[in-house]
# Entry
Amino acid sequence: MNHYVQNVRIAKCCRILATTDKSVQQTANEVGYSDMKFFHSLFRKITGSSPQQYRRLQA
# Structure
C-alpha cells in the first residue's frame, strides 16, 4: 500500500512539474513531502531522473 501511495504522489508531482512553474519544493509540499532529501531520492527512484531533469525533459 505504501508503494501505491508514493507512486500516486510522485505521479501528481510529475503533472505539476510538467504543467506549472511552481518550485520543486512547493510541488513536494503540495503532495505531502516536507523532507526534500527524501523527496528527491524517491522521485529519482521512481522516475529515473531528478525533479529538475524531469521538468526540462517535459518542456
